[in-house]
Amino acid sequence: MMLQLRGVSFEYEPNQPVLQNVSLDVQEGDILWIQGANGSGKTTLFRLIAQLLMPKEGEVLYHSQPIIGPKRKEWLADLVYLQANPYLFDYLTGKENVRFFRHLFAMPEDQFCPYFAQTAERFRLNDALDILVQDYSLGMRYKLFWACMFGREARVFLLDEPFAPLDEASLNVAIEMVRTRAENGAAVLFTSHVRDVSTQIATRTMLLENGRLAQQPI
Ligand SMILES: Nc1ncnc2c1ncn2[C@@H]1O[C@H](COP(=O)(O)OP(=O)(O)OP(=O)(O)O)[C@@H](O)[C@H]1O
């Protein structure tokens, strides 16, 4: 099993559990849609997997090893976390932001750039790369962030509301990118309130409700 959650519980405030005894098995090629109402804990679940939060109980395993400890670096190198709010520098151009991300992830130019260039081309971002990000529309910001994140050769993708800001042409590109990565052996976990795209792309669905995660028919 690639990624496992074993009995994970979490609370921000004492005695107000957000996740209760959550277990999950994720395999190579999975495209798993985590459904749940606003505030049900989907982002919290992703933050626990991305090590931004620590479980109160239980553990997260990557290839059967805890993601904290000796496997930590390998885990973070293999993980892409596309957060719902893109973190970009408004006062830098698109290209300068891209350079920042490449350095942040210590990606050699020859590995990162072909992936990035392919995505930027398909998202029709090339003409915008020399202008300041503060002049981007919401969709353009999102596509730049997406192209940077998908510039990495990761094994696990956590995508928090990845489809909402995209127009139809960009959605088709995004869907194909997700599918290609999964076909190449990556695991994808995503949250979304956009039902039609999610139904199209998901290989499996789970529902987070009252702190518990349960299998859900698609
Ligand atoms: N930093 C925090 N401190 C305290 N409580 C928090 C914090 N972040 C989130 N919460 C609470 O935890 C619960 C789960 O929030 P979370 O953001 O994980 O939900 P979500 O399912 O991602 O929601 P949405 O669909 O609106 O994005 C909510 O009740 C929220 O108010």
UniProtKB/TrEMBL annotation:
GO molecular function, one term: ATP binding
Pfam families hit by this protein: ABC_tran
Keyword tags: ATP-binding, Nucleotide-binding, Transport
Span of domain ABC transporter: 3-218
InterPro entries: AAA+_ATPase, ABC_transporter-like_ATP-bd, ABC_Transporter_VariousFunc, P-loop_NTPase
Name of this chain's protein: ABC transporter ATP-binding protein
Organism in which the protein naturally occurs: Kyrpidia spormannii
